[in-house]
Amino acid sequence: MPIVVQKYGGSSVADLDKLRRIADVVVARQRSGYEVVVVVSAMGKTTDQLLAQARELSPSPPRRELDMLLTTGERVTMALLAIAIHERGGEAVSFTGSQAGITTNDRHSDARILEVRPFRVQDELARGKIVIVAGFQGVSYKREVTTLGRGGSDTTAVALAAALDAEACEIYSDVDGVYSADPRVVPAARHLPQISYAEMQEMAQAGAKVMNAQAVEFAKQAGIAIYARASFQPGRETVIRKGAPVEEYTPRAVVSSKNIARVRMIGHATGARLAEVLALAAQHQIPLREVSCAAPPATPAWSRASFLVPLENAVHFARFRADVAAMLGEAVEVDEHLGAVSVIGEGITRDENVLLASLARVERLGIPLEGLTTTAFRISFLVPLADVDRLVQDLHAVLVESNEPVVDAGAVRVQGEAGGGER
After folding, report:
1. Cα–Cα distance, 109 to 140 (Å, whole number)
2. What is d(CA 328, CA 137) in angstroms, rounded to the nearest whole number?
3. Is there a single domain that holds both residue 159 and residue 13?
4. Same structural domain for residues 393 and 324?
5. C-alpha angle 86/74/211, rounded to 5°?
6. Which residue from 145, 241, 248, 316 has the least number of CB within 10 angstroms?
7. Is residue 155 part of a domain?
8. What does the pLDDT read at residue 364?
9. Half-sphere exposure at residue 405, Cβ-oriented, CA atoms within 13 angstroms
10. What does R_g of the chain's alpha carbons equal in angstroms?
11. pLDDT tens digit string along 204-249?
């Protein structure tokens, strides 16, 4: 029989009534002729509550102990769902990430999956059972429990689907797919019926919450289509797959990330000290983005360097910030009140039109531009946190809703420096 892997997010399993509804769906799917693997997140806000409890005890809890704590949330969900399935006459067995054969590196709180050996999952499927797997977690090659970072249950589901050669991977949440912007911020956001792996990965890396970037990477490597659907509202969906229709040179989405800090180093021998700071970041397991270093030609001994830190998984950022300040003193500046707004689309940087139109809107809104980076699929603006939603709404209206950007370069003032790339 064909295998299908389904993933249900926290809002979909928030209470016992929803677990009962999911049990009905899962049992019906198996009886329609499929072998079913279900990946679950923790119920509702459980992960946030556990994290808050840990931080009441310590402002910087050990990451290993955080992983031990946070993985209990998914274990509760998987066991309760298995019980609900048994009550409906189905047979189910629940596995932790390690029991399902998910091996990761040894980086706590944002580990990466290295290998999946789903032998126990395959054995139980062959016995006619529905297999429920705790998402968001695995075990390192050192036999330590690890977590995959926020959105890691998506990665669990896609990695299992690839290892099992599943027919499909279905991601269920409280929204019916992927939109051109967060509908809570942009009511006119467009539903995207299909999207390519590359565009979805750029959206996820830029802050879109509907899909995890590592999950899309796994799907791309394995050639597995991902179906993003609403848990309890059948109808529309977004299919993320190879060969999805692409609108070249046209912005498809505007997304944002609000929890960003920028670290800037300025002074003599900054380039030489950068390696020390990066080593310190590795020691505290601080995720980094857009590292850059430059020296003016006239004074090569005087240099500047910068990088961005997405704070969502930077558990020990306060300690890291204090250590960097002690190391460099006034030669380092840290700003935690920034956000990034990104325009996403295939080939949008192959000419200057979208970039010029975007810069013109930033200038017209009077938003201080703290940095600018580009890739083949993305233009990202680093701006004050308070201006993020306003810029998302404006760029979406001009670039996505109209699809006819008016190029008006004007005089664009860039305050500060880019976190890497162009500025």
Report:
1. 12
2. 37
3. yes
4. yes
5. 110
6. 248
7. yes
8. 94
9. 24
10. 23
11. 888 888 888 888 988 888 888 999 999 888 779 999 988 776 666 6
Q: Is the pLDDT of residue 408 over 60?
A: no
pLDDT higher than 70, residue 409: no
Helix (H) or strand (E) holding 414: none
Q: Indicate if 369 and 234 belong to the same structural domain.
A: no
Q: Is the pLDDT of residue 129 over 80?
A: yes
Q: Strand pairing of 130-134 and 35-40?
A: parallel
Q: How far apart are CA 258 and CA 382, in angstroms?
A: 10
* Cα distance between the two ends of the chain: 54
Q: Which helix (H) or strand (E) holds 256?
A: strand 253-268
* pLDDT score at 340: 94
Mean predicted lDDT score pLDDT of the chain: 88
Does 292 lie in the same domain as 146? no
Give which of 29, 50, 47 is closest to 38, Cα–Cα: 29
Tell me, yes or no, whether 415 lies in a domain: no
- Strand pairing report for 332-344 and 253-268: antiparallel
Shared domain for 329 and 211, answered yes or no, is: no
Q: Are 230 and 277 within one domain?
A: no
Q: How many residues does the chain have?
A: 423
Q: Which strands form 130-134's sheet, in the order they lie side by side?
A: 92-95, 130-134, 35-40, 3-8, 168-173, 226-230, 237-240, 194-195
Q: Is the sign of the CA dihedral 331, 421, 288, 313 positive or negative?
A: positive
pLDDT at 246: 65
Q: Are strands 178-179 and 191-192 parallel, antiparallel or unpaired?
A: antiparallel
Say yes or no: 344 and 237 in one domain: no
Domain that residue 34 falls in: 3-245
Q: What is the pLDDT of residues 104-121, one digit of tens each?
A: 999 888 899 999 999 999
The pLDDT of residue 70 is 95
